[in-house]
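Bug report (template v2)

What were you trying to do?
Predict the complex of my protein with LHLMBYCS.

What happened?
Run completed; filing so the output is reviewed.

Input:
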Amino acid sequence: MKVAWAGSRETLELSDRMAKLVANDPVFEKFTRPMLGRKELFKNTLRKAAHGWKLIVDLRLTEEEAKWLRLYIDEPAYTDLHWGMFIPAIEGQGTEEQKKKWLPLAQKMKIIGCYAQTELGHGSNVQGLETTATFDPQADEFVIHSPTLTSSKWWPGGLGKASTHALVYARLIVGGEFHGVHGFIVQLRSLEDHSPLPGITVGDIGLKFGNGAYNTMDNGVLRFDHVRIPRNQMLMRVSQVTKEGKYMQSDVPRQLIYGTMVYVRQTIVVDASKALSRAVCIATRYSAVRRQFGSRNGGPETQVIDYKTQQSRLFPLLASAYAFRFVGEWLKWLYMDVKQRLEANDFSTLPEAHACTAGLKSLTTTATADGIEECRKLCGGHGYLVSSGLPELFAVYIPACTYEGDNVVLLLQVARFIVKTVSELGYKQPVGTTAYMGRVATLMQNNCAVRTAEDWLNPGAIVEAFEARAARMAVACGRQLAKFENPEEGFAELASDLVEASVAHCQLIVVSKFIEKLQQDIPGKGVKQSLEILCYVYALFLLHKHQGDFLAVGYLTPKQALLANDQLRTLYSKVRPNAIALVDSFNYTDHYLGSILGRYDGNVYPKLYEAAWEDPLNDSDVADGFHQYVQPILKQKLHSAKL
Ligand SMILES: CCCCCCCCCC/C=C\CCCCCC(=O)SCCNC(=O)CCNC(=O)[C@H](O)C(C)(C)COP(=O)(O)OP(=O)(O)OC[C@H]1O[C@@H](n2cnc3c(N)ncnc32)[C@H](O)[C@@H]1OP(=O)(O)O
Ligand SMILES: Cc1cc2nc3c(=O)[nH]c(=O)nc-3n(C[C@H](O)[C@H](O)[C@H](O)COP(=O)(O)OP(=O)(O)OC[C@H]3O[C@@H](n4cnc5c(N)ncnc54)[C@H](O)[C@@H]3O)c2cc1C
């Protein structure tokens, strides 16, 4: 199962080597992180990032090894944006000449870059950005300017203190004409002493949610006062500005300017399975350690993992972690395919790649953020201790529902894609993830054939149920929209229904990809059978949770929905004996998990007890401040008889 989770034996071995390298290096210690003040915390992150880079260089790590190393260091840092957005943006939107100039500098870390798109006034509405880049043909330069307070760049990670350069998104103005938002490489700080260059105001935006957590990142604010950059620092793969001041659009679609977001959304889906699996690993191991009630004849109490309620909350999350792992793998393939096509100037699959990355980013991050919080509750009171690892994981993870596109805004993008597909059904055969809509007539007509709980253990029955629900919801939205004279007004009015239809479509993708995975050869005794059980758990849990949809569209009867729930209970009993092995298969070191409750050896109580004494409050028996603030109260002479 470890191999199935990692994707291959090679990846398992490589990631294992990197995990151990980090775990055994004292520089990457992280238990004291939540106790540090902001300055110490940030400096500590810089130290870890520098040590990580030294290891990468000294040990001549490959790009793949370096990625795993950074993951296991497990601390958000400016390097995430440098490697994760700045470099990919240049790769995707730069010309060959620009890539030749900037990529070696960035890859050797001679410069540090961030991705400066969002502003104080606009994040979701990228076309509403206010920063301007005005071409000055006399000087052959762009003038980058922040005309208003709301045009201040706000949020970019790595911008506040670390970056020397930024990829700045600004409205292009050539000859007095606006040409939409484009990307520009702008140097922010001196490469000698790191001080901001003339015309640049830059700093950190302040403390964020949670102790430690995402506060290791210097999310920044940036303003430009007529800062000049050479013309060739506009990324020019999509459109060009000539020396003479002529704006030229190439054959490449304008949407490619958003290409970095497609790439990052894809990586966020892959990361969702990592974050959720960490939380599930902690909650599952602890649920096997923790006992409450049920002692008979003085024997041990019941392990809480044996309670059906615990199983019905925990096992769907375990199944979701696996589901997101496999859909992430598929999405990575889809992205690589699109990337190759784009390089060959084939842009036909870009809209689907956009819809899939946007929709799956939204679905997986929402479920993961909610799932981490559920895991905290599954661990009872001890889950609220920072040493459980769950509060920090939650605090670090939740902004994933917002960054790289607010999850609702992204589902509305999926809705546009679905509505368009439905409206074209008469003359265009849908392909890829919308191919099922080509069978819309059958899906609208046929109802579920399930008669017994066992009938639900059938991938065909499950896929058809999810397809029918998604198709019927999409068609219903299409019909409602058709009643509006103005389609945009209709879209705005029906936005909530459209979002629900998008969720149904995205859930279908995840379920289908899990089922497709099971059609592959999966070696290892019992591995495939365990994955089949998890796949049914994932699908039937969703069906149970959203049974209102399946009933409302008339595909299921209430009896069939009840049968699905009956089957789900049986499946939980089948997951139980392997639950620990299924989380051990994630192959996480104790260092990466960062949780006393999730320790591999299960030695929870002695270690919790030990850790309590390491809290700075326990440095002395009598607290600092006692004599000043508490003792006077204890010693006061009370005058009122009542008191
Ligand atoms: C315990 C310790 C743990 C440690 C763990 C460590 C974890 C660290 C992890 C760190 C990871 C990441 C760091 C965070 C990074 C975050 C970085 C950011 O947030 S960068 C900023 C991201 N911003 C956004 O995502 C903005 C969202 N808005 C948009 O994407 C768009 O504007 C829009 C999709 C909302 C579209 O707006 P709209 O105005 O309606 O559209 P346009 O007119 O501009 O275009 C419409 C047209 O374009 C198509 N389109 C839109 N987007 C894309 C795209 N990306 N690709 C392809 N096509 C796209 C759209 O479909 C329309 O097409 P039509 O054919 O015209 O229909
Ligand atoms: C931790 C973190 C790191 C970040 N890193 C970066 C970075 O490196 N670089 C960068 O450029 N940016 C970064 N961002 C910014 C991030 O990308 C934006 O915050 C995000 O895209 C959401 O945009 P917004 O803040 O404008 O939200 P808003 O759009 O203001 O959202 C507010 C509310 O309005 C709703 N809403 C907005 N538009 C619509 C609509 N059309 N229909 C219905 N509802 C709508 C949303 O659903 C939400 O509920 C980061 C943000 C965070 C939190």
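What did the reviewer find?
The CA atoms of residues 382 and 388 lie 7 Å apart. The first strand starts at residue 113 and ends at 116.
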